Amino acid sequence: MKYGKELVEQLQGEIDRMKESIRDRYDRIDAGWTDIDDCFISQRCEERGISNNQDKIDLINNGGCMWFGEYATLDNQIVSAHWCNTKYGEKLRVEMPDGQVVWTTATTAKGLAKKGLKQVECLRPAWFKFSSGGMRGMMGVYAGSYVPFPSDINYATGEPAAAAPIEIRDIEGR
Q1: C or N terminus of the chain, fewer CB within 10 Å?
Q2: Structural contact between residues 83 and 90, judged by C-beta atoms closer than 8 angstroms
Q3: What is the pLDDT along the chain (174 residues), one digit of tens a residue?
Q4: Are 106 and 114 in contact (CB under 8 A)?
Q5: Would you give the DSSP letter of residue 59?
Q6: Inter-axis angle of helices 4-30 and 40-61, nearest 10
C-alpha cells in the first residue's frame, strides 16, 4: 500500500486515466460509434471517481485527518453511541466508560447534559467509502456518493490510528 506523496501520485495518475477515458468516450460519441445514452453510467462513475480521488488528494495534503461528530461524557471521555430504532421510537444507545448502557432521545446540549453527555467533534485519520444512501440496484450506483469515515490508518503518513482522537473540541450551541 502506498501513502503520502506516492499515493497522491497514484491517485493523480488514476484521475488522468479517467479524464482520458471521458475524452475518448466523447470522441466515440461524436464519431457516431456509440450513443450518449449507452454511456451515462460509466461516465457518472468516472466523474465520481475523479471527484473522490481529488478529495483523497486534498485530505492527504492536509494531514490525512478530518473532524467527526461524536458523543463524550462531560469530562471528555469518548463513548460509543448509536441511534437505534426501538419499539418506542428512535433512541440513542450510549455505552458509558464504566460499562453502563444509557438510552436517551435527547439531542440538545441541555438534554444530553442531564444524562452526563455532550456532543463533540473529534479529529481522526479519515478516508472515503462509497455509500448508496440506502438506494438499491442501479439507482444506488448512479446516485450514490463517497463519504468520509474514521480510518484505522492515516493515509498521509501510513501510521496506524490511535484509539483516542487526536483532538477533541466541543460543539458550540448544541
Answers
A1: N
A2: yes
A3: 899 999 999 999 999 999 999 999 989 989 989 887 778 888 888 999 999 999 999 999 999 999 999 999 999 999 999 999 999 999 999 999 999 999 999 999 999 999 999 999 999 999 999 999 889 988 888 888 999 999 999 999 999 999 999 999 998 754
A4: yes
A5: H
A6: 160
